[in-house]
C-alpha cells in the first residue's frame, strides 16, 4: 500500500495545483497527420493490487489501465479507434476475439494469469476534461498506468500535470504532435508513445518528396495550433536538409476557407509542391479550391482516417465525377501521401489476423491510429510478462528500449527509443486510389491508399537523439 499512498499524496499535493493553475489554458481541438489529417487516443485504469513475482517469466494479478478517449461528440471515431485498437492488441495477446466497446466503464481482458482492467473515460476531446479525469483515475481509481488522448494538448497536459507528478506510467496514444515525446517538459522515463507522430509523417514524406519526386520547391501551409505547426516545422527541417527550397509558409485558423488567394501565392512563389498540416475542419475548402483552380504544383502530405478520406473522396467526385478512376485522380496531382498505418500497407500474419478480427468485431477495417494503439497494448503485456510484475514502475522499466514482438507492421517492428520513449517504426507512401469493392462495406470513403509505392525504414522515420527539434535526453 505504500506505493499507492505515495502516489495519492503526490497527485493531491502537486496534481491538484496543476489543475488549478492550468484551468485557464486553452486546449487543442484537433490532431492528426499532414494532408489529410486526424488524431486519436485511449486510456485505462487499474486497481493497482498487482503482484510482483520473483520469476521474471511469469506474472499474475491485475494491471489497471486508465483509458482517456474522446468517445462522444464529433470526433468520437478517434476515440473508438483508440479503444478498439488497444483492446485488439490485448485480445491478440490473449488469443481471443476483441470485444470491448468504446464506452465509459470498465472492461477486462485476461492474458495468461493477468487481468488487464481498462477503466475507460470520455475526454470529449478537451484538455481540461482529460486532466480532470486523469487526476480522478490516479487518486480515486488508483490505476497502475494511463493510456490515451487524441488531442496533443490533452496528452501534454496529462503528461505534465498528472502522470509525471504522480509517478504513474503514461502511454500516449494516438495524439500526434512530435513535441509530446521531444520536449523537456513532456518527456519522462515513465512517458511512452507507440503511436506514430507528426515528425514521422514529415521525415517520411519529406524524404520521399526530395528523393523520389522531381519537386525542388515547396510552399508549406498549416493550421495555427501545435499540430499544424509541428507538421510545417518538421517538413521544413527535413526538406531543407534534403536540398528542397521552401518558397513560403503560412499558418491559418482551423476552418479557414479563403484558399484561392493563398494557393495563387504558392503558384506565384514558384512552388512545385505544397504540403498542408490540417484536419477535416479545413481540408474540404483547401481541396475544393485546389481542384477548381489551375495550378501547376502537386499536393503532398499524409493519409488520414476514414473521416477525412470520405471528405477528400466527395471533393474529388464533385470535381471529377463518378465513378472515380486512379488515372483521373493522378491527373489532378494529389499525392502520393505518407501513411502511419492503413490496413492494406502490411502483409504479415499478425496484420492479417488483426484486420480480420477487427473488421469482424467493429465492422470497419483498422484505420490510421489502430496499429499504434494495438502495439501499445502488446508492449504492455510483453513488459508484464518479461518483468514478471504487474506494478507500473516495473512495467515502465521494461518498456524502456523495448522492441515490441507482436505488431500489425510485423514482428519486432516497433522499438521504444531510450532517449525519449517514442517508438520508431516503418512508414509507407501510397497513392490515392478509388476504394476497392472488397473494402466498400468496411471503409466509408470513396478513396483509399494504394499498395505502398515506397517504404521508409524505421531508423529513418523519427527525430534522432541529436537532431533539430529533439529536446529530450533521458
UniProtKB/TrEMBL annotation:
InterPro entries: BCAA_transport, Leu-bd, Peripla_BP_I, TAT_signal
Protein's name according to its UniProt entry: ABC transporter substrate-binding protein
Highest taxon above the source species: Archaea
Source species: Halorarum salinum
Domain Leucine-binding protein: 62-433
Keywords: Plasmid, Signal
Compositional bias ranges of the Low complexity kind: 34-58
Positions of the UniProt region annotated as Disordered: 22-60
PROSITE patterns cross-referenced by the UniProt entry: PROKAR_LIPOPROTEIN, TAT
